[in-house]
Amino acid sequence: MVNLSLKDAHSLAVKCLLANGCDEANAEAAAGRMMQAEGDLCASHGLFRLPWYCSGVNSGRVNGKAKPTIEQLAPAVVRLDGDGGFAPLGQEIGHHALVECTRQNGIAALAVTNMFHIAAMWPEVERLADEGLCAMAFTASYPYVAPAGGIKPLFGTNPMGFAWPRKDAPPLVFDQASSAMARGEIQIAARDGHSVPETAGIGPDGETTTDPNVVLEGAQLGFGGYKGASLAMMIELLAGPLIGEFLSYESAADDAGKGGPPKGGELIIALDPAKFGDAEGFLAHGEKLFKAILEQEGTRLPGARRFIERKKTPQTGIEIPDSLYDTIQGLM
Amino acid sequence: MVNLSLKDAHSLAVKCLLANGCDEANAEAAAGRMMQAEGDLCASHGLFRLPWYCSGVNSGRVNGKAKPTIEQLAPAVVRLDGDGGFAPLGQEIGHHALVECTRQNGIAALAVTNMFHIAAMWPEVERLADEGLCAMAFTASYPYVAPAGGIKPLFGTNPMGFAWPRKDAPPLVFDQASSAMARGEIQIAARDGHSVPETAGIGPDGETTTDPNVVLEGAQLGFGGYKGASLAMMIELLAGPLIGEFLSYESAADDAGKGGPPKGGELIIALDPAKFGDAEGFLAHGEKLFKAILEQEGTRLPGARRFIERKKTPQTGIEIPDSLYDTIQGLM
Hints:
2 domains; two-stranded antiparallel sheet; homodimer; Ribosomal Protein S8, Chain: A, domain 1; 11 strands; alpha+beta; globular; Hypothetical Oxidoreductase Yiak, Chain: A, domain 1; 18% strand; 12 helices
């Protein structure tokens, strides 16, 4: 393993992105997103993704010099055109517009379009909760998950992020796929020769299996079966047709086998609890729920681990596999 | 079984509610809701609930003569004060305000407060989709579901409803609990001596079980485990602290063992796809997804069965058990 300070890891990512056709603004934004993940010890959304970012730009699919623009579509709806770049730079611009629009209207939506969202979703919702807002975010991906009753992949693993502001504590945040397992978890199980739970997916014949290779040839399943599939379908509609963006299977067709990251959209909804009738009480009221959860042995709040790691990594730095470090060096 | 025409069933429900302290407007709205369920052959939300409605009014907890009022809290936020009555009358008033507010702003929220929501959720979202809007609804209930890692009930079974308008077809609608099973399904399994899947819940000792009686003494689990529990927690926040209403455990404390329906709130979010940048294309685009789902053998769209039944029941009428019919007669 190679140990890197967060600062050095950030510089490495920026340098690599610049060497692969990104301009300063896009490289900084994408690297910043990877560092948020690394800082929380969520390596699967960190430098691990850098080669994928680079391949996206190198194949010409991703615009490394994107200049995202915003447009007000309705009093409470803002659209961000990502100009074909990676999501983080556009989200940065869209965030401020969404906060302002939400404070004015009580609830507002940001339709993020024409971009490549290949990062975790918690940063965008957490950041809104840092502003005192409640937030939800939805994005589609590639067709990996079978519809209820079917056996062929159609929906993305379609994550949903949620955040709620807390009193004297970091926000309550979760970010979970609609599928029983993340795509990457199944790929890693296949690589390492491990089995997966039989709720994870089915083979091409529609039969349940614990062999990750068979799931990768077949289809993943929604979490909790048909209910997770319903959520995946909902997210297809919200991040696709609602905002004029790709369904997961359209995104795969657009990629046309090049193997780059999925192009598509994201819907972010923010609500200002101060405009919902309990401006004085909502924060303390939320804390009553969290207290009741934590009073039970064995519980923790979603996202809690990340906030603990986040305090440590500025001192300890992070570790990445030698192979990844070498790959990155080879990209420059 | 007693066979009733929908019209006679409606009259029966209205008469019973009037005899138990509801005024005409409240009785008509509540009966109308039960008839929507009966007409779709969802008996568990139909006349089956009438004795519960009556007991709520009789115990003095529910205001059978509620006069719901609406208030604009922000440009895109409307609050409905249910005046302590059953939800359907307030929802009727709130619906029109929400539609207007959504068309103006692109997205809007209706905070339904101070009411008793003991019906299915699909009617409110389906009705919004009938207006061409996309809709989501969330409500809490009583503490039945354990938080992730815990063993004591804290969250409600907390359903979420979703609807999407379709082209030349009834809306796409789903309405699903955050728990693996509905409360009523477990109660019915206990009554009939059937077992439940071991994903349904745990006993008071925290061990999984297939005995519904043990689950009823212990706690239900979220669908798909911790992910469903995350959704249940989210819905507690949206239908509770966000809008200044009860958490599920506060609702149980308010009931104080009387055994009536839960008092609380509901959040409804509506989005106008015509204001999200693809007014011309969103309907046809959604249909592409539905076509891709239905091309797979064994699939159907959520809610499809209900629309089929709905065409039949005006001719066939409905059937209710003799015991329920006798109970209702005894209430008048």
